[in-house]
Design a protein that fits this description.
It holds the Pfam family ABC_tran. Helices cover 32% and strands 24% of the residues. The structure holds adenosine-5'-triphosphate.
Length: 250
């Protein structure tokens, strides 16, 4: 079996006196589509910051693509779509094409001319997310769900192997959430590994291949069917408060 893409071992993390992560052992294998859930303040964003190298574990180790994280340099293999990505105001002066082009910034520097190959990458990424008709529109004029697609395209231009998404469907209506998950499914079929932080447990369990539940430590890591069969008491223990798991019939 190939090495995991992400391997966290005995990871602890403190913000000053506050422990945000405690003895986290977590692996992501190639081809996984992991839904990361947990209560507010459970440490999901902190875990992402560690994977992106924005914070270092207080103790414990992290390997990315088989390398210790401090030696890992192939940043293009990691794509990131943040929670606040879809909050551009109307009239924000950048077109869809310009926003997606920013995904090549680490390769190009901001002001270099685009080569024909760069343009091809940009158009292919926009096509993959089904937004070709919107290339010259202002990003601020798109809906939250459409903006989120553009941010996926921006992540796709660097040809990432793992995309991390932090609550990408906040503020997106139910119908478009479903379409968004369909897009994630397609990307996953094209060999892109996904780590999705979400509070939308019902929709996620229909699409993810594994579910991880984080409340300081990893309380559950298994397949969505097992997650759905957890008892109310088990879920309440994980979440620190009662939780009704609402799943949607398909
Ligand atoms: N910069 C910071 N300084 C101090 N404490 C922080 C900081 N960022 C987060 N925390 C604390 O660390 C804990 C984990 O926070 P984190 O944002 O990782 O949780 P989360 O699971 O992403 O929450 P949510 O679902 O609400 O986004 C919380 O107790 C939070 O208050």
């Amino acid at each position: 079996m190939s090495k995991p893409i992400v391997e966290m071992k005995n990871v602890n993390f403190h913000y000053g006196d506050r422990q945000a992560l405690s003895d986290v052992n977590f692996t992501i294998n190639k081809g996984d589509f992991i839904g990361l859930v947990g209560p507010n303040g459970g440490g999901k964003t902190t875990l992402i910051k560690l994977l992106l190298g924005m914070e270092k574990p207080t103790t414990g180790t992290i390997h990315l693509f088989g390398q210790p994280i401090r030696k890992f340099k192939e940043k293009n293999k990691l794509g990131y779509v943040s929670q606040k990505a879809n909050s551009f105001n109307r009239g924000f002066p950048a077109t869809v094409e310009e926003v997606v082009t920013m995904g090549l910034a680490s390769k190009l520097g901001y002001f270099r001319r685009l080569s024909r190959q760069d343009k091809k990458l940009i158009y292919e990424a926009v096509e993959k997310v089904g937004m070709t008709d919107y290339l010259s529109e202002n990003i601020g004029d798109l809906s939250g769900g459409q903006q989120q697609r553009i941010f996926i395209a921006r992540a796709l231009v660097s040809n990432p192997k793992l995309i991390i998404l932090d609550e990408p469907t906040v503020g997106v209506d139910a119908e478009n959430v479903e379409k968004f998950f369909d897009l994630l499914h397609e990307l996953n079929q094209q060999n892109i590994t996904l780590l999705l932080v979400t509070h939308d447990i019902g929709t996620m369990t229909h699409h993810a291949s594994r579910v991880a539940c984080l409340n300081k430590t990893l309380h559950f890591h298994g397949n969505p069917n097992e997650f759905q069969t957890l008892s109310k008491d088990q879920l309440s223990d994980f979440y620190g408060h009662p939780l009704n798991l609402v799943t949607h019939e398909h």
